[in-house]
Amino acid sequence: xxxxxxxxxxxxxxxxxxxxxxxxxxxxxxxxxxxxxxxxxxxxxxxxxxxxxxxxxxxxxxxxxxxxxxxxxxxxxxxxxxxxxxxxxxxxxxxxxxxxxxxxxxxxxxxxxxxxxxxxxxxxxxxxxxxxxxxxxxxxxxxxxxxxxxxxxxxxxxxxxxxxxxxxxxxxxxxxxxxxxxxxxxxxxxxxxxxxxxxxxxxxxxxxxxxxxxxxxxxxxxxxxxxxxxxxxxxxxxxxxxxxxxxxxxxxxxxxxxxxxxxxxxxxxxxxxxxxxxxxxxxxxxxxxxxxxxxxxxxxxxxxxxxxxxxxxxxxxxxxxxxxxxxxxxxxxxxxxxxxxxxxxxxxxxxxxxxxxxxxxxxxxxxxxxxxxxxxxxxxxxx
Length: 383
What we know:
single chain, 383 residues, Nuclear Transport Factor 2, Chain: A, 9-stranded antiparallel β-sheet, 6-stranded mixed β-sheet, 6 helices
């Protein structure tokens, strides 16, 4: 099965800090207050933080010796081990650490580690840490992507979650006392979230993805409607097409792959087949076969037909929407419209044109086909 690739364990940008109200700097929190840091979701967490602040308003400030900035560096080193054999450093957490995500909760470090161990067995998770930053006097926020393969089902579906974790720091001992996850794909993040459970269930459906070479990408963000991916550069064989759902030019490129080239070399099959429109009027459409990842221009034979060209796709940031069924022209255009509208609503800047990615042989049962409409983005930030 072709899967999303998580290439770099962590990225370390230096983004501007966002404002966060937790408590006045230099005020020692009462022992019960640590459970309020990062508790609940959205407005609930904010109101709890304010409650902490107001409860401390008349207390005499006592400076904490905790170096939260050093904990940021620690998390950059420690969190990439979340699901490997080394694991995270248990001693960095309070024994009564409060963990919450939309469908899971634990109130001890033992329960938290048990949850991690269960995920490793059932889901085989791949974890990518994007950034870590201080977002309050005793608060650190991380952004991550987690791709999981659900092993108990025969088709081993891929589940993708992206989001942030808000981690509270105990000012008395410098250990993490709370850890609350917020998923990008849902609005209701408080435990227990029925929306979160449904988000898990809907990802269990079967999309047939051939076990062939495919362009590599990292999933940066997954919303309820689309994914934002970062593609690595890849090579394609390209010729002109007629429409996004069309097959004009397919046989020409297939001929090149199967040996109609300068060295009569048979090139391994890959997936998907792309059709690309460069503008909204679909005035120019091309069809592309992605080429094996171990090939470069020097190792590829020249096409016999002048209408076929070899080109490098430089990669970049793309938004993708996935769907099954036969990708007729009307359906593809409707998906493109849906995706573009969602991107603009979310404040992103989609480029003109789009691509249709078809992963399957046309003889595949339509209800398990994997099709995607992709739109390149002008720019994207994980802030």
